[in-house]
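Why this split exists: single-chain examples teach little about how molecules sit against one another. For that reason, every record in the complexes split bundles all components of an assembly together and asks for one structure covering all of them. Below is a record exactly as it appears in the raw files.
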Amino acid sequence: MPHLTALRCIRCAKDLLPAAAPAYTCACGGNLLAQYDFDRVRRELSRAHLATDPDRTLWRYAPLLPVDRGTHAARLNVGWTPLLDAPALAAHLGLKQLQLKDETRHPSGSLKDRAGAIALAVAHARGETRVAGASTGNAASSLACLAARTGMKTTIFVPESAPPAKLAQILLFGATVIQVRGTYDQAFDLCLQACQEYGWYNRNTGFNPFTREGKKTVSFEIAEQRAFEVPDWVVVPVGDGNILSGVWKGFVDFKAAGLIDRLPKLLAAQASGSNAVTLALEGDGKLRPVSGTTIADSISVSLPRDGEAAVAAVRESKGAAVAVPDEEILAAMRLLARTEGVFAEPAAATAIACLSRAVEQGKIPKDASVVALITGSGLKDVVSAMKAAGTPHLIDPDLASLKRLIEQKEKR
Amino acid sequence: MPHLTALRCIRCAKDLLPAAAPAYTCACGGNLLAQYDFDRVRRELSRAHLATDPDRTLWRYAPLLPVDRGTHAARLNVGWTPLLDAPALAAHLGLKQLQLKDETRHPSGSLKDRAGAIALAVAHARGETRVAGASTGNAASSLACLAARTGMKTTIFVPESAPPAKLAQILLFGATVIQVRGTYDQAFDLCLQACQEYGWYNRNTGFNPFTREGKKTVSFEIAEQRAFEVPDWVVVPVGDGNILSGVWKGFVDFKAAGLIDRLPKLLAAQASGSNAVTLALEGDGKLRPVSGTTIADSISVSLPRDGEAAVAAVRESKGAAVAVPDEEILAAMRLLARTEGVFAEPAAATAIACLSRAVEQGKIPKDASVVALITGSGLKDVVSAMKAAGTPHLIDPDLASLKRLIEQKEKR
């Protein structure tokens, strides 16, 4: 871990040494933020270095990562997803410039692969033999997918209610899946106990400080793919808040390394039923449990596990937060697919729904340059896609029937 | 269409001029093969040109395509998928060298995006206003996805039995979906009639000569990503045979352009219930209808629509064909996911199941260099994934229950 100097508690600001394993969280309960020796980072990572590096994965940013580009890293071909110009969607929203960071194009179809790759590479570097996590969704399928490539064993804890379709992907990759007769919180707690009992490495979001270090690479790529011109706003779907805090840390670290000269404003995009971060930002900054009920399962959270860092990131960026009802999320899935050909899961489409609201409300000016994170593929949740999609026209198999249909459509 | 000189009938060898639109198939019924002016191609496409071209899409091969890298092409960011080393799977199959061309990483999650991109770019170049096709699967979702990005209108004809989950993706992209009370063949026929009646551009596989021109770019990339060292064998899932004939044309065109100096052998990979090409190759070369019944829906075909070209390609390459039952396809889905972290749909896993058989039967020697095409994402068919995946372990939410489970697993 060459340039990593400490893990700093976001609550009490105490610095822990990275070697003091397994330092997942501070004794005070605060999450940990990785610190780097930026003098050394600057010597190894410059615009000139990047211009000549043929590596088209997140490992091109190795000096700003907690683990080396090593043997296992080469198998974890994650990152460098497309940054798509979105002129048709921009015109629809009344925006001057909009780009989409298309994270659906990762090996397991979501941004979580960035977190999984770094967590796994750290686990291999530490000589761990098994990585565990509690999740029913993208974090688990990403961990299982990437671990299969490096030969790491994985155990995934899920609640009894976990949908069989989501379990299929995790099981197919060969993960051991433990379904507990109980809630998600009970699965999470059993995962913690099991890691202590058996010495497994714990990848849980918020708890493990290195998932954020993986997620921050999406900001490095946004900056580099825009020729180091930082956008005015970045729109980020928010559940646990770990992607948002990662996005912020990416821009902050890149500025500290001298690669960019300013920071963007962040828009936290939430579902109305899962709006703990939005409520905290509108109120006293404190996080309180909400129902967590939304069609956008990847950001359906009662009490965000990295919420403190997320609230701090939005405030530091002078950004904003917006929460939208599920109907607007489904409408945004359609709009995004029809204008830009991107098939997003509901959590990802939430970014577009909230961006639309923020422009309407004047929170984001129309002449701003905006990048929205499309965090996961719509293929992961075809049930929601069916709700958003509409229905086909059913006709008899002859040209006369087709002609009647076309005439009817033209009249409307 | 700068270097395209003619469309040659694969049955009667007659050359049609590309301007003689809409020349989909020859009057004799044979499919058409695009011909190029290779003297001109060589002046614009060399290893030196490619080494300095920053374009990481299939448009880097524009001199060997039937349409220019134009305004719409820039929006169709298809191609340059990863070629993954697969050492763990190679070891399992007893092969010295195996690579996977990971076509699951395309915008709509399948290799069909290559065909859709070229068909759409041709349609735009011809000034067409609507593209139609008959399909329930990857070809339709790819066309709808890419057309949304270029603003082209699309009409998709599907049989009444089309699964709602597959229709959802097509509908979400804004395609007009016509569901006919009848079979797939009736939907196909109505699509033909509608294109004649309304002057729409027909993208149907086999019928449209340019889908093959899109699919051939996968071979260009395999060659270039291997530093122009052609592999001994390429394994291709075969339904209609259009991907196989495209793969072969890619290597043939690249050799004619002086970019490679030899051709690979092709293994046609089929499901036992959909083995028309395999039967033709084992028999008199003639294609006869089969049941087309297999879990691998993307290669489930009664009479292959580009079967003649596929049979010719395997023979010219001195290759082979193998067909496997559905159980072996499901087992290959598991094997591929567990050894290499790639989640393939059944049609794509058929490549691995047939490769395993071909190695066992000595059709492919163990010291051969092999590339297998992983043609589509497993997320497109979660129902099949659930059949292949196995089941989780259900326990009470306490450490004692977990310990009992782990002890039982260790005893086994």
